Amino acid sequence: MAQGAQAGAMPHGGEPDSGGTRRDFLYLATGAVAGMGLLSVAWPFIDQMNPAADVLALSTTDADLSHIEVGQRVTITWQGKPIFIDHRTPEEIKAAEDVPLSALPDPQADKDRVKKDKAEWLVVIGICTHLGCIPGGQRLGDPRGEYGGWLCPCHGSQYDTSGRIRKGPAPLNLAVPPYAFTQDKLIRIG
User: Which residue of the set 67, 87, 130, 155 is catalytic?
Assistant: First the structure.
């Protein structure tokens, strides 16, 4: 009988057979080191897909409303777009609320375009939904059209005091950006 075939023989230079646990450990350790190496090489490629700091800075804009008087409109910029902020008068709010939805080309209630308990503040993206023009009506003395809102000078689209299209070729209302009140007179857009 050969020496290796004897019962109780010790393979590999006299060490007892341990069931392959040393080999399993070496495989696991090699795999772990290879995985960490792969991750350290892949991480820069994955990380470069995150938005740059300048893009993140543009993702939100804070606006202080405390200096805006009732009846005054201001324009700020968010993501390169003009944002119209209108501190509406009680008459403008009532005019917007009294419009029957059936009279609107793009039916939307005024209460759905403003924040609850903050109906005096209207925040819309100031881009005409027809061809992307900037409607007039932000400055005192600008023509505001028949409905007291905004008037697009290019093709005559007219918006009401809720930023809803009332007349002209524009198919949709002025868009309401995502925003929230972070304090009583401070909003965060984006």
Answer: 155
Q: Could you give the CA distance from residue 157 to residue 145 in angstroms, rounded to a whole number? A: 9
Q: State the DSSP code for 132.
A: S
* 130 has catalytic annotation: no
Strands (E), 20-104: 61-64, 73-78, 81-87
pTM recorded for the entire structure: 0.71
Q: Which CATH number fits domain 55-189: 3.40.50.12780, 3.30.43.10, 2.102.10.10, 1.10.3720.10?
A: 2.102.10.10
Can you tell me the distance from the alpha carbon of 110 to that of 97, in angstroms, rounded to the nearest whole number? 6
Helix (H, G, I), strand (E, B) or coil at 167: strand
pLDDT at res. 56: 66
